[in-house]
């Protein structure tokens, strides 16, 4: 049976690029869709054709079922691939495709419905003999009885939205005093993300490990499991590092979990690629519990592809076209080890709040056993409209140790200039002793956060930034006037040039004497070092007594220079150029937005007295909430925004005046 001639990809970002790549390999014409924010995005450039579907707001573009169906019909597409996120697990979208005569590349709507509601999903798989975590839900808790039900389930417990996944709306509650606030926050996020604030609570498994099984099923009755992925390295219930296989499981445990996952898929008549997620204690891997089934391709699917040799996207398309699986369960073998790291636009040193900006330059790693799934291009604008994931860096080796080494080197060679990322944090996490030993659990990152996150700017970067400034000041041309050379020479004194540089909240005075080929550099009161520097394309090469350092380099607006090396990147500007304080008011005056986004909740009114630390507003960006608090005791003398309003980075939200200034 031949596959489709044209497929529309109803998504954006790296997953759209990834799907287009497999469609091209199959000889299938690809159709991209894009919002106004993505008019020049990578997936638009790589598709055979592309259709505008609406403004930047996701609800009016990537979540608009009529717009996407119309685009598919207008371009002659026979099928639609939803990717992940957006409409990928929306049964209404799958039905709309069917009604329009389009094939939805995914499971039938009935399976999406059955697994999309976590409460009903648990009941369904439990009836099929799959073990589930003890808990309760809104459906069986009487009004006003949440606290009593929580006491019966026992603390700590986990609140989860019934209607969605991806960690959104999940809250870990350690004791009864935290319950009310957690319920309020979880319901608000669930309603905003999924349009449904129904919650369930589950017993929280101690020392939990998150292991999921990839399943693949055709329309002819074959259901396979393709081994597991370890997804225990998480923050705020969002996966950070994933790997296959898990070091925790032996062959017998792998087969047992795989069989349970296949039964879960069969219980709802599943067709296509899907993932069954389990939770288990690190101390007892024989006892595992069903968490949920994701009725779509997972972000972390590349690690399964690398250890099985299968192209999951290709199989999704072939299965949707009616082809039977040509594999049997005994044909599935896991060879070697693969590990994936997710690169996000976020600032780990400031609580992982989303960053943004224009990508000035991109360098992505390559080489044997290294794969990058990315949508990054020079000029790409990272805003607050969509998820902050920029790329995935994946490494494969014959064993786990070699895969870890390759991934670390690949991240060290990753440079994204113009936007702050979590790459340095990822390298720190991979270097953790327990991570390297495979002693993982879902709370490890939170326990080690202080060790993994640092706001310090190494002095070597200030040296490099100063040498870059010096190189920029050098005169060019066939004839150079000696007086144009920036030596700082003056009669009766040692020459030199002083640069007052700022990187975020860190400032330094850097004194440089000499030329780029032979200079002495002193950062603040540190000992001077001998340095030489030169540029080679987008590289800045710096030689010091102790060795040779290479940085990726890009120039930004207002004389800002971005430097990246060894997975770390920093933006440097002159001290008189104010880099954003991002809402961290130190005293009276404006309280500004820490990120571009939307005001979700305004918790105070003008004229209201507040204490330092009182929550004022909640700003949301890229599906993350950030609570803005009062910097001092005082009164809200101005309130500049309302709920639902879009705000820019550093935009004034409110003004707090000290209590004694109140009239």
Automatic annotation (TrEMBL):
Reaction catalyzed: N(6)-biotinyl-L-lysyl-[protein] + hydrogencarbonate + ATP = N(6)-carboxybiotinyl-L-lysyl-[protein] + ADP + phosphate + H(+)
Ranges for domain Biotin carboxylation: 3-450
Protein's job: Component of a biotin-dependent acyl-CoA carboxylase complex. This subunit catalyzes the ATP-dependent carboxylation of the biotin carried by the biotin carboxyl carrier (BCC) domain, resulting in the formation of carboxyl biotin. When associated with the beta1 subunit AccD1, is involved in branched amino-acid catabolism with methylcrotonyl coenzyme A as the substrate.
Matches recorded under PANTHER family: CARBOXYLASE:PYRUVATE/ACETYL-COA/PROPIONYL-COA CARBOXYLASE (PTHR18866), METHYLCROTONOYL-COA CARBOXYLASE SUBUNIT ALPHA, MITOCHONDRIAL-RELATED (PTHR18866:SF33)
Entry keyword annotation includes Lyase: no
Subunit (UniProt): The biotin-dependent acyl-CoA carboxylase complex is composed of AccA1, which contains the biotin carboxylase (BC) and biotin carboxyl carrier protein (BCCP) domains, and AccD1, which contains the carboxyl transferase (CT) domain. The AccA1/AccD1 complex forms a dodecamer.
InterPro entries recorded: ATP-grasp (IPR011761), BC-like_N (IPR005481), Biotin_BS (IPR001882), Biotin_carboxylase_complex (IPR050856), Biotin_carboxylation_dom (IPR011764), Biotin_COase_C (IPR005482), Biotin_lipoyl (IPR000089), CPAse_ATP-bd (IPR005479)
Superkingdom of origin: Bacteria
Lipoyl-binding domain boundaries: 582-657
ATP-grasp domain: residues covered: 122-321
Cofactor(s) this protein cannot do without: biotin
Identification of the protein by name: Biotin-dependent 3-methylcrotonyl-coenzyme A carboxylase alpha1 subunit
Keywords associated with the record: ATP-binding, Biotin, Ligase, Nucleotide-binding
């Amino acid at each position: 049976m031949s596959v489709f001639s044209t497929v529309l990809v109803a998504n954006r970002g790296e997953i759209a690029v990834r799907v287009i790549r497999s469609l091209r390999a199959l000889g299938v014409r690809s159709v991209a869709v894009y919002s106004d924010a993505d008019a020049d995005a990578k997936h638009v450039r790589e598709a055979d054709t592309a259709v505008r579907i609406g403004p930047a707001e996701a609800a009016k573009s990537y979540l608009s079922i009529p717009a996407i169906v119309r685009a598919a019909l207008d371009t002659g597409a026979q099928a639609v691939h939803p990717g992940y996120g957006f409409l990928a697990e929306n049964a209404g979208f799958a039905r709309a495709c069917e009604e329009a005569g389009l094939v939805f590349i995914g499971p039938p709507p009935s399976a999406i419905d059955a697994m999309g509601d976590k409460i009903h999903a648990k009941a369904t798989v439990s009836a099929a003999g799959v073990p589930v975590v003890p808990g309760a839900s809104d459906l069986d808790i009487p009004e006003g009885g949440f606290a009593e039900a929580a006491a019966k389930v026992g603390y700590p417990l986990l609140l989860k939205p019934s209607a969605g996944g991806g960690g959104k709306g999940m809250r870990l509650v350690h004791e009864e005093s935290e319950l009310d606030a957690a319920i309020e926050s979880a319901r608000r996020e669930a309603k905003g993300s999924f349009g449904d604030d129904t919650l369930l609570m589950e017993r929280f498994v101690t020392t939990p490990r998150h292991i999921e099984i990839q399943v693949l099923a055709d329309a002819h009755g074959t259901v396979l499991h393709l081994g597991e992925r370890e997804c225990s390295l998480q923050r705020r219930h969002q996966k950070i590092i994933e790997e296959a296989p898990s070091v925790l499981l032996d062959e017998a445990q792998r087969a047992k979990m795989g069989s349970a996952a296949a039964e879960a898929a069969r219980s709802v008549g599943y067709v296509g690629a899907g993932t069954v997620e389990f939770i288990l204690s690190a101390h007892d891997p024989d006892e595992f519990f069903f968490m949920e089934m994701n009725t779509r391709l997972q972000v972390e699917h590349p690690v399964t592809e690398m250890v099985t040799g299968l192209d999951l996207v290709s199989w999704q398309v072939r299965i949707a076209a009616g082809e039977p699986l040509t594999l049997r369960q005994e044909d599935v073998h896991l060879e070697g080890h693969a590990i994936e790291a997710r690169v996000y636009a976020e600032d780990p040193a400031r609580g992982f709040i989303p960053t943004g900006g224009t990508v000035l330059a991109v360098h992505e790693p390559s080489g044997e056993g290294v794969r990058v799934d990315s949508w990054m291009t020079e000029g790409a604008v990272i805003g607050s409209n969509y998820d902050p994931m920029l790329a995935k860096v994946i490494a494969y080796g014959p064993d786990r140790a070699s895969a870890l080494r390759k991934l670390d080197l690949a991240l060290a060679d990753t440079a994204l200039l113009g936007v702050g990322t979590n790459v340095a944090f990822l390298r720190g996490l991979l270097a953790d002793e327990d991570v390297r030993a495979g002693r993982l659990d879902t709370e490890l990152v939170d326990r080690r956060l202080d060790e993994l996150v640092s706001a310090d700017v190494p002095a070597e970067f200030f040296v490099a930034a100063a040498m870059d400034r010096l190189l920029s000041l050098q005169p060019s041309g066939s004839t150079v006037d000696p007086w144009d050379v920036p030596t700082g020479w003056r009669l009766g004194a040692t020459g030199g040039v002083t640069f007052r540089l700022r990187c975020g909240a860190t400032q330094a005075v850097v004194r440089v004497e000499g030329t780029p080929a032979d200079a002495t550099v002193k950062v603040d009161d540190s000992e001077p070092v001998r340095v030489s520097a030169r540029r080679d394309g987008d590289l800045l090469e710096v030689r010091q007594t102790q060795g040779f350092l290479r940085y990726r380099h890009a120039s930004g607006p207002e004389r800002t220079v971005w430097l990246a090396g060894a997975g770390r990147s920093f933006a440097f500007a002159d001290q008189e150029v104010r880099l954003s304080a991002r809402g961290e008011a130190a005293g009276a005056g404006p309280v500004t937005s820490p990120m571009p986004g939307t005001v979700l909740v305004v918790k105070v009114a003008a004229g209201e007295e507040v204490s330092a630390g009182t929550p004022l507003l909640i700003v949301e960006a890229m599906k993350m909430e950030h609570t803005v608090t009062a910097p001092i005791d005082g009164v809200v003398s101005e309130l500049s925004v309302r709920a639902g309003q879009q705000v820019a980075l550093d935009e004034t939200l409110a003004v707090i005046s000290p209590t004694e200034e109140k009239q």
